[in-house]
Structure formats: C-alpha cells, structure tokens
Amino acid sequence: MSAFTLRNIPLLSRVGADRADTLRTDVDAAVAGWPEALLLRVDRRNQVLISEGRAVLHPATNAGDAPPEHAVFLGRLDDGRHVWALRSELEPPDDPGAPTEVLDLRRTGDVFDDVSAQLVATATALLNWHDNARYSPVDGAPTTPVKSGWSRVDPRTGREEFPRIDPAVICLVHDGHDRAVLARQTVWPQRLFSILAGFVEAGESFEACVVREIAEEVGLTVTDVQYLGSQPWPFPRSLMVGFHALGDPEQPFAFNDGEIAEAAWFTRAEIRDALAHGDWNSSANSRLLLPGSISIAREIIESWAALD
User: What is this enzyme's catalytic activity, as reactions (predicted)?
Assistant: First the structure.
C-alpha cells in the first residue's frame, strides 16, 4: 500500500481556456481581437467578482480602445474571444439582475468552474508579479511590460525579465500501511494540521528537497520519494509539487528549524474522521482540522485516506 496516486486533478491545476501563447508576441492580433475581447478585473486583495461559479468578464472595450499598458493576456475561450486581466476595482456585471459575490481564489476557489479557475489563477500570478517587478533587479531602472504582460523589459539595456516562480515541495509521509504524519506550523492556530512543505533551494532536485525539508522540519529520514502531481499557488508566486514518501514511526520527531510546533502519526481512520468534519474553516470540535479543497494538500490527504 506504499504506492498511490491522486484521485482528482488539483483544483488550481484544471485546464480551461487556451493559453494561446503565440498571441502574446503578435501585437497586431492582440489589437485586432480587442474589440471582441473580455476583461477580468482583479482587485488589490486578489479578489474577483463571480456569478454562479464563473468569474465575471466584462467587455474589454470598457477599459479603452486598445489593451491598457498594464493589462495581461490570459488566453482564448472556445468561441475564439481573447481574455485579458487588469488590476482594478471590481465592477458589477452588465446584467444588473445577475447574482454576484466577491471571492478570493485562495479561500473559495472550489466554487469556480474550470475556465474561471485557470483564468483567475493565471491573472493572480501575473498581476502579483507585475506589482513587484516594476524596476530592474540589475540597476533599478524602470521596466516596461511587453509580450502582452508576460515579460518586462528595461528600455535602456533591452534586458528582459520573466515572471518568477518559486517551486516548493509538499509531501505526505506515511509508513506504507495505516499511518501518516500531520504537522502544525508554529504560526497556525491549535488543531490546524497539514502535510509537510518547503521551498526548493538552488542546485537541489525536488526529491532531494523532500528529504532535506522533512529532516529539517520534523527530524524524520524518508525514503521512496514518489511524485504525485503539481499545482500553481499564486500567493504570491509558488508552484506546489506534490510527493509522498516512506517514514519510520519508531524514529522520534525533532523540530530542528523551528517552523513546526507539533507533529504526530495519525491512523487512516483518524484522518478520515477529520476530513468528514470539513476543513480549516469548520467550527467542528474535532481534534484535527485539515486544509481546504483548493489546496493540493487536501487532495493528497484525501487520496491517501481513500485507500483500503
């Protein structure tokens, strides 16, 4: 029972719109598609307006006759229309009777359909990067967005910068049978547990990072590191790469880097019970509260818990 796979595609890894990367450098095509294009507005808190599971998209021409300088190209819908995103205040839909709500992808992304999940995740990642990349990291010169928002260039030197992605591993440690490790970070409230994660260091493979991070965080030596899947996590710019690995329940925990407040081995029955009580937002009086469905952590835990 040491091997398992994810039962479902992580919610933020769903494929929706065509990313249409060839259009990013075709300025004429971008401008030609603008009159029929749609625009996703994302506010400063990375919130969007949603209606019945879909992100509200406005006619792009509401923002002008051509793509604004800081708009980013997200892709193309099945009907051929282009979709752009812009950091701005949210605006109500054209249909005043449509039910709407303001949602944060990180907390409520499970209600988005596939297309909206991809569009909002991509927009959030790109706009967060632009917010923090307006100056060259080499000489501090102001940079200009190019390629429909997919890169920035220093007009003086021509140096081009691309969106930064910080890869991180996330791993379920189990004994190959009926027990798995869950841990609580020092900054988390009591009873909030998850699996172990950490950022990849320079010159390090994903698998080596899993071994190092788990040793640093809880003192366990793990083996048989197996890949499960990945998920963008644009808060602000991570890519979560999921694994599972074997650990020894007889080996004592050691919280070496100070990030983990407590950890324990839990049985499959205990984890199933925790899953039944909901997630971190639940008011249930459960010993464990586990991550929400938007996180790949939840999918990994649920997939392991579902094994017979």
Answer: a 5'-end NAD(+)-phospho-ribonucleoside in mRNA + H2O = a 5'-end phospho-adenosine-phospho-ribonucleoside in mRNA + beta-nicotinamide D-ribonucleotide + 2 H(+)
Indicate the SS3 state at residue 236. coil
**Residue 261: per-residue pLDDT:** 96
Token pair 């010159």 in the structure block, residue = 203
Domains of the chain by residue range: 11-161, 166-305
Please give the helix or strand (H or E) that residue 174 lies within, else none: strand 166-174
Residue 58 has pLDDT above 90, yes or no: yes
CA angle 109, 242, 178 (to 5 degrees): 105
Residue 277 has pLDDT above 60, yes or no: yes
Q: Provide the angle, in degrees to the nearest 10, between the axes of the packed helices 268-276 and 296-305.
A: 130
What element of type H or E holds 106? Answer: helix 105-108
Residues 6+ apart with CB under 8 A from 108: 294
Element (H, E) at 130: helix 114-131
Pick the CATH number of 166-305 from 3.30.870.10, 3.40.190.120, 3.50.30.50, 3.90.79.10: 3.90.79.10
pLDDT at 1 over 60: no
The domain 11-161: what is its CATH number? Answer: 3.90.79.20
Mean pLDDT on 9-13 = 92
Q: Are the beta carbons of 183 and 195 closer than 8 angstroms?
A: yes
- Same fold for the pair 11-161 and 166-305: yes
Calpha distance 67→61 (Å, rounded)? 8
The SS3 call for residue 170 is: strand
Rounded Cα distance, 217 and 260, in Å? 6
Distance CA 287, CA 270 (A): 9
Structure tokens at 142: 């102001």
For residues 184 and 141, give the distance between their C-alpha atoms in angstroms, rounded to a whole number: 42
Read off the pLDDT band of 2 (50, 70, 90).
low
